C-alpha cells in the first residue's frame, strides 16, 4: 500500500481539511454559542471532562514544543509546532469552559500553571519524554487517532460549548493524524534504520493503549488506523501489553513533574505578571 493510498483512506470524510489547521481561520468557534449549562447535564462531570481533555492537549503541546530546533527538517519543525498550537488552542477553550461550570471561576492560566502534577488528569502517554523522531510520530499517530474519535462523538454533546470545541477540533485532529500516518509509513518503509526505529517506537507506545481505551473507548478506530498504517509501512502490529494505572486517576509517571516545572516556572515565579 502506498503513502498516497494511506493518505486518501485516512482523509476520507475530511476532504475540506486544511494542511495547516492552526491560523488558517480566526473565527471564534464559540461565537453566538449559549454558555449556560443545559438542563440534564451534570456541571461537575462536564468540568472534569473538559479538564481531562485540556490536560491531554496541554501536556502533548508541551512535548511537541520540545521539537522546535530539533526536528529533522525545518518543514517538520514548523509542522510539529503548528500541531502543538492546535492542541494549545483546544486546551485554552476547554479550561475556560471548565472554569465557567465548576463554580470556581478559574481562568485557563489557573488550570495550566497553578496546579500540581497530582491534580492533572492527562493520559500518561502524553507525558512520556520525547525520545527520537519515530517515537514522536508513533505517539502522535495514536493520540490523534484516539482524540479524533472522541471529538467526533463529542461534537454531538448536549453541552453546546463542548460540542463547538469538539467540532472545531475534529478538522485539526484529522490533519494531525494524517501527518503522523504519512511519516510512520515513510519511516517504516524507508531504510533499515528508520524501519527499526519506527518498529521500536510503536512497541514503546503499545503498553499505553489500554489506558486510552479506559479513558475513552476508541479501540476500533485506533486498531483500524494502526493496522492500515503498519501494513503500508511493512511493520508488524505492536504487541499489546497494557500497563496498570491511569493518568485520569492522577497516577502519573515520574516525567510529569519536571515537564510541568518547565511549563509553569515563569508563571509561578512571577504570578500575575503581564507584558
UniProtKB/TrEMBL annotation:
SUPFAM superfamilies, alphabetized: Ferritin-like
Q: Which UniProt keywords apply?
A: Oxidoreductase
- First-level EC class: oxidoreductase
Q: What is its EC number?
A: 1.14.13.149
Pfam families on file: PaaA_PaaC
Q: Which InterPro entries match?
A: Aromatic_CoA_ox/epox, Ferritin-like, Ferritin-like_SF, PaaA_PaaC, PaaC
Domain of life of the native organism? Bacteria
| MF-aspect GO terms | phenylacetyl-CoA 1,2-epoxidase activity
PANTHER family given in the database record: 1,2-PHENYLACETYL-COA EPOXIDASE, SUBUNIT C, PHENYLACETIC ACID DEGRADATION PROTEIN PAA
User: What is the protein name given in its UniProt record?
Assistant: Phenylacetate-CoA oxygenase subunit PaaC
Species this protein is from: Streptomyces vinaceusdrappus
Gene name, Swiss-Prot/TrEMBL: paaC
Amino acid at each position: 500500500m502506498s503513502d498516497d493510498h494511506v493518505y486518501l483512506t485516512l482523509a476520507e470524510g475530511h476532504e475540506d481539511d486544511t494542511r495547516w489547521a492552526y491560523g488558517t481561520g480566526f473565527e471564534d468557534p464559540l461565537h453566538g454559542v449559549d454558555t449556560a449549562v443545559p438542563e440534564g447535564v451534570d456541571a461537575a462531570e462536564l468540568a472534569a471532562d473538559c479538564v481531562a481533555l485540556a490536560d491531554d492537549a496541554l501536556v502533548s503541546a508541551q512535548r511537541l514544543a520540545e521539537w522546535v530546533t530539533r526536528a529533522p527538517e525545518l518543514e517538520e519543525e514548523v509542522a510539529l509546532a503548528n500541531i502543538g498550537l492546535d492542541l494549545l488552542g483546544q486546551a485554552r477553550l476547554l479550561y475556560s469552559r471548565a472554569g465557567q461550570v465548576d463554580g470556581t471561576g478559574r481562568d485557563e492560566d489557573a488550570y495550566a500553571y497553578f496546579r500540581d502534577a497530582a491534580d492533572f488528569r492527562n493520559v500518561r502517554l502524553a507525558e512520556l519524554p520525547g525520545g527520537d523522531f519515530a517515537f514522536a510520530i508513533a505517539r502522535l499517530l495514536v493520540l490523534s487517532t484516539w482524540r479524533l474519535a472522541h471529538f467526533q462523538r463529542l461534537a454531538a454533546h448536549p453541552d453546546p460549548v463542548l460540542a463547538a470545541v469538539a467540532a472545531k477540533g475534529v478538522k485539526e485532529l484529522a490533519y494531525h493524524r494524517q501527518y503522523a500516518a504519512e511519516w510512520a509509513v515513510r519511516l517504516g518503509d524507508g531504510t533499515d534504520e528508520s524501519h527499526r526505529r519506527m518498529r521500536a517506537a510503536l512497541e514503546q507506545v503499545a503498553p499505553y493503549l489500554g489506558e486510552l481505551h479506559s479513558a475513552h473507548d476508541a479501540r476500533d478506530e485506533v486498531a483500524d488506523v494502526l493496522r492500515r498504517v503498519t501494513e503500508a509501512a511493512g511493520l508488524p502490529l505492536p504487541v499489546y501489553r497494557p500497563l496498570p494505572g491511569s493518568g485520569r486517576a492522577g497516577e502519573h509517571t515520574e516525567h510529569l513533574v519536571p515537564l510541568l516545572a518547565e511549563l509553569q516556572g515563569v508563571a509561578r515565579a512571577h504570578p500575575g505578571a503581564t507584558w
